[in-house]
Amino acid sequence: MLTSIKENKLTNKGQELGMMYFRVAIILFGAQLVMGLIAAIQFLAPGFLFEIFDFSVARMVHINALVVWMLYAMIGSTYLMLTDETGHEGVAIGLGKLGFWVLTAAVTVVVLVYIFVQVGPGKESTLWLINEGREYIEAPRWADIGIVVVVLIFYFNVFATYIKGKKTGIMTVMVANLLALAGLYVAGMFYTDNISMDQFWWWWVIHLWVEATWEVFVGTLAAYALIRLIGAKREVVEMWLWIEVLMLFGSGILGMGHHYFWIGTPEYWWEIGALFSALEPVPLIAMFVHVLYDWGKEQGIHEAKGEPKSVITNGPAMSWLVLNAFGNFLGAGIWGFFHTLPQVNIYTHGTQFTAAHGHLSFFGAYATILIGMMYFGVQKAYGLERMKSTFKSKMGIFFVTFGVMGMTIALTIAGYEQVLVERAEMGATWNAFFTAQSLPWYLQAQLWRAIMGVVTFVGFIYLVWDLLTIGKNAQDAEA
Ligand code: HEM
Ligand code: HEM
Ligand SMILES: [Fe+2]
Predict the structure, then answer these.
(1) Bridge partners for 314 per DSSP
(2) Could you read off the pLDDT of 8-42 as tens digits, one per residue?
(3) SS3 294
(4) How far apart are CA 383 and CA 8, in angstroms?
(5) What is the DSSP string of 86-127?
(6) What DSSP string runs through 444-465?
(7) What is the pTM (predicted TM-score) of this model?
(8) Which ligand number lies closest to the CA of residue 215?
(9) What SS3 class is residue 192?
(10) How far is the CA of 384 from the centre of ligand 3 (A)?
(11) pLDDT for 361-382, tens place per residue?
(12) Which atom of ligand 2 is closest in space to residue 357's alpha carbon?
């Protein structure tokens, strides 16, 4: 991944820019995990780094780094596929590179301020310079504006290239969806001192990102990847993509009601949220079926031609893609559905159950496919016809997945205990909140989460090691 900076076999500058985004993404992913480990230890030993690096700070950096590395990897993936899809080498890639450096400098400053300044007084200046205090998208206002400018450059690049080049179905969905995705960010920038109104708009960003526009983005990536990794037919893939878009937006947009149950919004949101969000798993299972169907079909055609070798041209990328298809359904679809009806959510709301779902969904739906795209980028950078999984690729995917699944199960148990003790038995009082958190089931679950966090981290080390070496080794082996 690193040696691909100077000498690489990429055919155009857009793909080089894509790889630059990937490198920063993986560093931020590492930072995310370190912060998660600190926060996890603080659950077990509340005095750990107290008043030096408090839980609130570790948690904030953990989830902001999560969102930012994913956005980086999404931009990287888009640049990677832009030329392939449009047949055009990319408009204004030089400007895109400038945007990359400006964004990366801004992110670095924001992270340093998060870590060293941490919090400020309750004044306007804190909003502008330190952080905005909106979970997941806490960047201070100056950085918000910078982000908007850089994203406009990125979007201009994608849009202008699309207009000048071939207009495939995949690119059409990509261009329309990216406009919505970027535009929604602005909904999180309004300032109001009414907390209900603030949350109302904040969910437009968070929910309409992860349950509408990001999901459609994953649909376009998966469509592109299936064509490239196993030679799936474009007509079939694009037909699925249109259906997925319809179902994802059809359920996901009004599904937002599942966040409007208890924040002071009108009660009709109970019915709307329950109905539409309950439909959200449907497209996710469809996406899973789609990937397996295409894979089986292409392998079958391949074998019928008397070529029994695997149809897959990039082992690790395909493994992560299949994991994505299943993880999206499991983390978002199943773990989301568990608590999406108001009758259930009244008990589970804000317990560790939410955190269990948050981990498995972000991992299953997004981390997986974005890591897959990184492997695909490495294959391109080294000009490899085929790239097989190595021992390290397998250890990476195994430990990361096992770790996240383990954390999810531990948190689900902690959430279950909270529902029983804190909510059902003790009636959600202040006292109940603390009692539930001091009982053995809760504490043991938190211990297991920390252990499984370490397992995840071991997997991450393997993953990075593999990304750094797999291309070079495969190239040497080919030669
Ligand atoms: C990949 C897609 C998804 C991601 C990344 C995701 C992520 C998250 C996260 C991080 C939260 C916690 C937000 C907070 O900090 O308050 C959350 C909440 C929630 N999610 Fe999802 N989610 C996804 C899909 C779904 C789906 C498909 C459903 C329903 C079928 C669902 C149902 C819910 C509900 C009901 C809540 C509120 C939990 C509470 O009351 O505390 N999610 N989601
Ligand atoms: C080393 C592994 C990890 C550890 C130890 C860890 C630990 C934590 C901790 C302690 C929190 C705060 C929970 C709370 O406020 O109760 C948290 C929140 C969160 N983490 Fe992680 N994490 C890890 C990896 C990940 C990964 C891989 C993802 C997703 C790809 C992720 C996504 C999230 C999300 C979305 C939240 C907010 C959840 C919510 O408030 O509902 N984490 N994590
Ligand atoms: Fe949601």
Answers:
(1) 387
(2) 888 889 999 999 999 999 999 999 999 999 999 99
(3) helix
(4) 8
(5) HSS--SSHHHHHHHHHHHHHHHHHHHHHHHHT----SSHHHH
(6) HHHHHHHHHHHHHHHHHHHHHH
(7) 0.97
(8) 1
(9) coil
(10) 40
(11) 999 999 999 999 999 999 999 9
(12) 41
